[in-house]
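Course assignment 3, question 2. Fill in each field.
Student: A.L.
Task: Predict the tertiary structure for the chain below.
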Amino acid sequence: MPKAWGENSQNLSTQSTAKAPLLGASLAELTAWVEASGQPAYRGRQLYQWIYQKGARHLSEITVFPKQWREELADIPIGRSTIHHRSVAPDDTIKYLLKLADNQIIETVGIPTEDRLTVCVSSQVGCPMACDFCATGKGGFIRNLEKHEIIDQVLTVQEDFKRRVSHIVFMGMGEPLLNADNVIAAIKSLNQDVGIGQRSITLSTVGIPNRIRRLAEHQLQVTLAVSLHASNQKLRKKLIPSAEGYTLENLLAECREYVKLTKRRITFEYILLAGLNDLPEHAEELAQHLRGFQSHVNLIPYNPIKEVDYQRPTTKSIQAFVSALKKRGIAVSVRYSRGLEADAACGQLRANQI
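Answer field:
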């Protein structure tokens, strides 16, 4: 069994958590909840279907329930957000600002292609990591997202696109492993209740000491994406303040342990910043770190933000970096940003709107 992360199992008792949101509860939990409310067990499956398949936002919408009981349930939240702002790009990518129950605003992105619909979800309101190049990090940290607030993002995109979500990436606002309990619980619910395969889910982290190892103990089938963004410790400390207490060497050692425990390949994300980390010597350093590693490098040309003057690299320097890694036997691809010509970087739309 994995070590405890301080997670409390969801308690839907009508006495102890009368107003706990229902989204994120399993069929068994919802069935127990309706029975505790004095209703027959079959209403648990009805509730489950209305929440996860029909997208009910309020219990009053569930017309198969007796009217009197619906009135009694008026104060029980399902746990859905509202769309505060919606921005559509020419390629049909949609960036959403979602308003939560406490009026906090988070970003979510729906990224469609012909054969898939990917949702980029947030795990926190803001982010405490303060990475120097990141608009979300510049905005500070407010709180972790609850399990239902993570699941809601996927349902919202699915409903808005009127199309089934096929893939999820935890690459929105926040550091997922600083909210591991809720993120792992959401992943399990998205898999079991919403029906999205774990192998179609990617969890991205900048690296928190001991958290990758503990994540491995859960034996999830998700793809782990680790944000390196630098080929040496000195440069990584400049870009990622938390690297001061978690060296690149220690991070990679924990990643190797993750591969050993899970037998799953890791993706390493590397944002290319012009003239800073995109030079041939950086490619050589990165290759040395990753030799013999069961991994894949995902290069991401930078999306500039107004708060700092980092620049996007040239096509020539991107291609040279790719070639240098391939020459040294490193699996590599380039991920070009989809969507918005303005406010494309994570956190930019939220910062500009609020």
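Instructor remarks: The longest strand covers residues 105-112. The radius of gyration is 21 Å.
Grade: pending
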